[in-house]
Amino acid sequence: MCRDNPLIRLNMHLGLPEITLIALVVLLLFGGKKIPELMRGLGKGVKSFKDGMNGAEEEQPKEEKE
């Protein structure tokens, strides 16, 4: 099952040199001051997504009872 997911297969091939290269490219593109802002925005987006999923799960049983 894990072999069917392309993201898992991609993750298996990322070693320390590749991750270091990606980090350096991100640092060069966005600069050191912009990265914390990007990560904060990403964190808020993930939290909002999780809250939305939890809200959808809470509404689903209510609809089934009616």
Content-based structural category: mainly alpha
Strand content: under 5%
Order of helices and strands: HHH
Strand tally: 0
For the biggest sheet, the summary is: none
What would you report as the Rg, rounded to the nearest angstrom? 19 Å
Mean pLDDT: 79
What this model shows, in words?
- The structure is a single chain.
- With 66 residues, the chain is mainly α.
- The chain has two domains: 1-30; 32-66.
- Helix content is 82%, strand content 0%.
- The chain has three helices and no strands.
- It has helices at residues 6-12, 16-30, 34-65.
- The radius of gyration is 19 Å and the shape is flat.
- The termini are far apart.
- The model has no long low-confidence stretch (mean pLDDT 79).
Short description:
The protein is mainly alpha-helical.
What's the SSE blueprint?
Blueprint: H1 6-12, H2 16-30, H3 34-65
